[in-house]
Amino acid sequence: MFEIKTRRDALRREEAESGFGDLGSETRGGAETALSGIVAGTRVATALGWRNVEDLAEGDAILTFDNGLKSLRSVRRKALWDGNGACPTRLQPLHVPRGAIGNREEMLLLPRQGVLVESDVAEEELGDPFVLIRAEALDGVCGISRRRPIFAPEVFVLEFDEDQVIFASSGALCVCPAAGDMISRIFMRNQEPTCDYTILCQETSRELIEKITWELEEKWAFALARRGQNASQQRSAARGEELRKSRRA
Questions:
Q1: Would you state the pLDDT for residue 29?
Q2: Distance CA 117, CA 174 (A)
């Protein structure tokens, strides 16, 4: 149904210093903007197949990366931006082209939405190929760029009993929290994380993030070249078939 692989083994977490702040929302001059969550129109893998996030409700079974199907505890809605005028650049969502981070569909990510990426560099340096990065760290990588929304779509925060990683847009891996903000919670003093992740932030892991994004760029360029080659071969085959048909006519 999905043509995606789940991962049930717990992911190892390396210690990282604080610096993420509140990933949920931000208030500027009385206006509030969502900084993390799943943008309306994004498809999510569920027990019933791929469904738009806005159609999900409490109790729905969602396919997770680590733990198979898990029930939603709650779904919260909020506006992407409710201020006057255009959404400020640094708060704008990021447009992710098809295939950039495993997604088979174009998608929008909020700046502080956590995404799980697979990296050979991460495995070499951390011992785990999967690392958690904020979407804003991928701005300019693999064709990912800020996009000013023509209108302010709704954002949906999917909450589970425990922190989970879900499949979005046919393959991207997005972090969804238990109650509250996972990234903020695991950095709180004297509080144990509910799930183990290798978490990278620009303030403490800039060099490693640069290496990982360079690796993603190389894979992206190779995928684009291969896609172009396949398209060229298909066009050549089609032209050959047309030529054969015209000769038989």
A1: 45
A2: 9
Please state whether beta strands 172-176 and 164-168 pair in parallel, antiparallel, or not at all (unpaired): antiparallel
C-alpha–C-alpha distance, residues 249 and 245, integer Å: 6
Instruction: Please name the residue that has the structure tokens 């009993």.
Output: 161
Report how far apart the first and last C-alpha atoms of the chain are (Å, whole number): 42
Indicate the pTM of the whole model: 0.75
Which DSSP string do the residues of 196-211 spell out, in sequence order? ---B--HHHHHHHHHH
User: What is the arithmetic mean of pLDDT over 210-233?
Assistant: 84
Query: Encoding tokens for residue 234?
Result: 């298909």
Query: Is 31's pLDDT higher than 50?
Result: no
Classified as helix, coil or strand, 112 is: coil
Mean pLDDT value across the chain: 79
**pLDDT digit string, tens, across residues 161-210:** 999 999 999 999 999 978 655 555 544 444 444 445 677 887 778 999 99
C-alpha pair distances (Å), 126 with each of 19, 20, 177, 225: 20, 20, 23, 30
Q: Which position has the token pair 């149904």?
A: 1
The Cα–Cα gap between 10 and 29 comes to 41
Handedness of CA 137, 142, 148, 154 (dihedral sign): negative
Q: Token pair of 236, please?
A: 């050549």
